[in-house]
Design a protein that fits this description.
Elements: H1 21-41, E1 85-93, E2 96-104, H2 107-111, E3 116-121, E4 137-146, E5 152-166, E6 172-181, E7 184-193, E8 198-208, H3 229-240, H4 244-250
Antiparallel strand pairs: 1-2, 1-8, 2-3, 3-4, 4-5, 5-6, 6-7, 7-8
Helix pairs in contact: 1-3
Length: 266
């Protein structure tokens, strides 16, 4: 997706209950925390990942510059397959189901440590037993997306559906879902490991174009509620000094990959 599709002054609204004066005062601080969190994870090589290949604006006349699309290691980044990989833990916070972790443009990028944070809140009025068989339902949340020039954008996603289905082995559940965001509509497919509380999904975009946002929606998720940012930032500073291999392991490199589904080109 071309960078000019989101203007320089574009700002993502904080997710939460209907805007109040107190929430507006805290929003700037929360965005600063998100910026520090992302910087602690390290810089990404890709720009405007989010699952949309950057095919726009290509100029066939630029054949003379053979290294335009090559990264520092000489690999052609523009040809890299874009299938966002999301890995994280399911937890219960204040009787609500949350999924939080990190994502990358694909499995290889994830293993290289090129990750960004995401967090979603789902069904409520639950206890810890819900982690053994999560209910299907609607989720709201966000993910951080690195942009050109080191800027980090918080992309909001509302009304995502996630469905959990038992498997024969009773150790995992199949997960499917769908939703939309500023980049288009998408589907989700993956697995939930019951013992480890680990949910891993592959996001596949089916169409480009921003999703309309109804400002009157009752969006009651505050993704930063009940998060101890002092502890979180301390952990992220520790991770900044870790080798990429260790960082990848911490964020799920050892999780078994979900079964890949067949894809047809549009």
């Amino acid at each position: 997706m071309a960078d000019d599709e989101l203007p320089d002054d574009y700002e993502e609204e904080e997710l939460g209950s209907e805007d109040s004066e107190d929430e507006e005062e805290e929003e700037d601080d929360d965005d600063d925390d998100d910026q520090e969190d992302q910087e602690a994870l390290g810089e990404r090589k890709v720009t405007w990942g989010a699952g949309i290949p950057n095919d726009e604006g290509d100029d066939d006349d630029d054949e003379g510059d053979e290294n335009d699309d090559e990264g520092e290691d000489g690999n052609d980044e523009s040809s890299e397959v874009i299938l966002p990989t999301m890995k994280g833990n399911l937890t219960i916070i204040d009787d609500r189901l949350f999924w939080q972790g990190t994502w990358a443009n694909n499995e290889d990028a994830y293993e290289r440590g090129e990750v960004s944070k995401f967090k979603y809140g789902g069904p409520s009025d639950l206890d810890e037993s819900a982690l053994d068989e999560p209910p299907s339902g609607t989720w709201n949340g966000y993910f951080l997306n690195p942009a050109t020039g080191g800027e980090i954008i918080k992309i909001r996603e509302k009304g995502i559906s996630l469905n959990f289905e038992q498997t024969d082995d009773e150790e995992s559940m199949l997960v499917t879902g769908e939703g939309s965001n500023d980049f288009g509509t998408f589907t989700l497919e993956g697995t939930y490991n019951i013992a480890d509380r680990q949910l891993e999904c592959i996001k596949s975009y089916s169409a480009q174009g921003g999703a309309e946002d109804d400002e009157d929606d009752d969006d009651d998720l505050d993704p930063d509620a009940d998060v101890d940012y002092d502890d979180e930032l301390a952990n992220l500073k520790e991770e900044q000094e870790m080798p990429i291999e260790e960082l990848a392991k911490r964020y799920g490199a050892e999780i078994s990959r979900p079964a890949k589904r067949s894809r047809t080109d549009n």
